[in-house]
Amino acid sequence: MKLTGLIAATFTPMHEDGHIKPGPIGAYSRYLIENGLAGAFINGTTGEGISLTLEERKLTAEEWMRHQSGDFKNIIHVGSSSLETCKELAVHAREIGAYGIGIMGPSFFKPATTAELLAFISEIAMLVLDMPVYYYHIPSMSGVSLSMPAFLEQASDRIPNLVGLKFTHSDLMELNRCMIVGDGKYDLLYGSDETLLCGLSLGVKGAVGSTYNQIPSVYLRLMEYFDAGDLEGARAMQRISVDLVTILNRYGGGVVGGKAIMKFLGMDLGPCRLPIRNLSSEQIEELKKDLEGMSFFRMGELINAN
Known about the structure:
By secondary structure, the chain is an alpha/beta fold. Helices cover 45% and strands 12% of the residues. The chain has 13 helices and eight strands. It has helices spanning 25-34, 54-66, 83-95, 114-125, 139-142, 148-155, 172-180, 196-201, 216-227, 231-250, 253-264, 281-293, 299-305; strands at 5-9, 39-42, 73-77, 100-104, 133-137, 162-167, 187-190, 206-209. The chain has an eight-stranded parallel barrel with strand order 1-2-3-4-5-6-7-8, surrounded by six helices. The longest helix is centred in the last third of the chain and has 20 residues, at 231-250.
């Protein structure tokens, strides 16, 4: 089954000393559900998953699963440079009832060929054959830049529960080629918020992103406009997304700036963990002023008025 709608790439709540703080996850989950999100992608890039210990990743995943509701789907990222860690996290995700798992390519000893990547992902996926598995393609972070159409073509006979990709890459030609592998067999979850409209135009139905945490109404309206054939309306919503991402890029990007914005929205998820730097109090005030300049705090009201 292919996923549709918006899946939030979630932040990991932390105490001021950098230790994880599971307490806010219940309210966080309710916030996402009430704002029309279709699911959560947990312990990924936005969640600083690679910076967490094995036990911290398990604890965070368990807390999210305690608050799973209805059709809201939790996908747990289990990627690591350690194959054994990936395996343990995958089995744990199945045991706690997650909808599916995502697996990023190992980022230190990187697979040099498609065959090597397939061997790595297959070792993990075969332990959870009753779960959907997504390969998390994010070469800007993992450094794994292998051909995804070739990966999907060769995976067809090797990894029966590989259902698709979380595709976080700027190569739209490669995305298009992935979409036609196996006559459209695979589920492509688009991972670039600021170009969601491009992904929709190529046929994607589901997307995973960090700014879906902050302005979900903008993206939901973008998809409504697109489905209705109103490209001007969809472009207007995409421009709002670009404005937000442009601001975020001034303040450390979607993880650092994005986590700070969640506090403005009434959800204090704490700081980021080293080596990621956090914003100073002066920068936080500047961020707030920049957001006010794009009418961020009136966004829901403005969207609903249209």
